[in-house]
Structure formats: C-alpha cells, structure tokens
Amino acid sequence: MDKINDLATEETTPLDSSLARRIELRDRHAAKLTRLMDERSDLRGVHRLADFVDDAVRWTA
C-alpha cells in the first residue's frame, strides 16, 4: 500500500499508474477469492490456482 501512496504523491507516468493499478487489483482479487473460499468450502479442489492463492494468503497472514 505504501508503494501506491508514494506513486500518488510523486509525478506519475503511465507506467507508474499502471503498476499501481495492478497492485491494487491483485490485492483486491486475492481478498475476494479468500472470502469466497471461506463461504464456499465446496469450491476447494476445483481450481488449483484458486487453492494456491487461498493458501498463500492464509500462510502470509
């Protein structure tokens, strides 16, 4: 989050804006995926990448 704030206070280039947007979207998608996996345990094992992201978020928390 600090990277996004640093980018917002400095003069930004289109590349900086794109990078900040990607970071924001990555974090938001991971959070929503984790919430979905909590609500729907039947989805576990359906998609390996979803399982991987869910596990990675839990291990880093």
Structure description:
- With 61 residues, this protein is mostly helical.
- It has one domain (2-60).
- It is built from three helices and no strands.
- Helix 1 (2-9) runs antiparallel to helix 2 and helix 2 crosses helix 3.
- The two termini are 15 Å apart.
- 2% of the residues are buried.
- The mean pLDDT is 84.
**Oligomeric state, counting identical vs distinct chains:** single chain
The main β sheet shows up as:
none
State the helix count.
3
| Radius of gyration (Å) | 15 Å
* SS strand fraction: under 5%
Task: Quote the distance from N terminus to C terminus.
Answer: 15 Å
Q: What is the total number of structural domains? A: 1
Structural class: mainly alpha
Contiguous runs where pLDDT drops below 50 for at least 5 residues: none
The percentage helix is over 70%
Query: Strand-and-helix sequence, N→C?
Result: HHH
Number of beta strands: 0
